[in-house]
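Q: Got a minute? One more chain.
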Amino acid sequence: MKPPELVLASKSASRRAMLDAAGVPYRAVPAELDERAIEAGLLDASAPEIAEALSVAKAAALAPDFPDAIVLGSDSLVVVDGERFDKPTSRENAAEHLRFFSGKVLELHSAAALVRKATCEWSYADCARLAVRDLSDDFIEHYLRQEWPEVGYTVGCFRIEAMGVQLFESIEGDQFTVLGMPLLAVLEALREHGVLMS
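A: Always. Here it is, folded:
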């Protein structure tokens, strides 16, 4: 029996790179939805619950267009000092984020969900803790000169696989969670749902 097609509801380069490197066949189709509106309805939810809900929403938005496929949605969000941060809206906003993060612990919550037709068949969230070193204004300016606009598409204003690694003095957690998707859990779920061989 032919395995179901996997559709990745994301335009994230790092999520595509993870699936590519793991040898997972998929088609990438960005999901169009108002994430802020969804978050507004989740005021009392925890950070992992919000990341999971957004992952489900992204997959569910595409599922009607791919009735025979399994749709993978994924989302990440950052919490520092109890405050949640979205992607920066401008280079100046990114600099503000980085100044706030300086010397603090950044919690990165990454989640994923599998949706088939109208049903969420699996979801999961994980958290990594990244200790941001003390960042000078000169470093922040140099960093954004090198990394903007790419980091404008990321929560936390960093690509860990690029110069973003220089922001941190220590990292606790799974490397794939830091990259933006809890890949090992995703792979296990894909095996359970017949997308990958067990």
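A: The chain has one domain: 6-192.
Q: Perfect, thanks.
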